[in-house]
Design the sequence.
């Protein structure tokens, strides 16, 4: 397996774990609602509260920090996504009549876009955190050999 594939595969599993840990409270609440026959809550209560907008902001913030730490690879799309999600969150909560369909569609869209951006930030982080010592040493040896010739 090539080093490039390893970076993408590692980033995939890291992203899955981080998403699982981040949304774990929502998963537990969902199961508690399903197990409690007398509960009047539904999963749409989470959409109405804008919870998935907040998850989107969380993943976008992490992605922005990774991109921003890389001086060469600065990408401001996560910052724009944070601003748009924050605006959408505040507008949906301040509306007089809550349109659940709009909140559902936009919050899930923002959540998945932020996940994609976060995944590629993980890939970038993995690429720059692992150094292949063999290639580095081979380049050093080639440089020395060229200097001697």
Sequence:
């Amino acid at each position: 397996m090539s080093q490039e594939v390893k970076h993408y595969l590692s980033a995939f599993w890291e992203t899955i774990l981080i998403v699982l840990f981040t949304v774990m409270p929502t998963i537990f609440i969902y199961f508690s609602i399903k197990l409690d026959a007398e509960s009047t809550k539904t999963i749409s209560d989470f959409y109405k509260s804008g919870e998935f907008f907040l998850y989107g902001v969380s993943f976008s913030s992490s992605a922005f920090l990774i991109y921003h730490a890389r001086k060469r690879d600065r990408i401001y799309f996560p910052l724009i996504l944070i601003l748009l999600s924050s605006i959408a969150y505040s507008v949906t909560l301040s509306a007089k009549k809550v349109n659940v369909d709009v909140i559902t569609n936009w919050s899930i869209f923002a959540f998945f876009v932020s996940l994609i951006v976060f995944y590629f930030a993980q890939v970038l982080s993995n690429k720059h955190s692992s150094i292949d010592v063999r290639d580095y040493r081979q380049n050093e040896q080639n440089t020395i050999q060229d200097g001697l010739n």
Observations:
- The chain has a mean pLDDT of 77.
- DSSP finds seven helices and no strands in the chain.
- The CA atoms of residues 11 and 17 lie 10 Å apart.
- The radius of gyration is 21 Å.
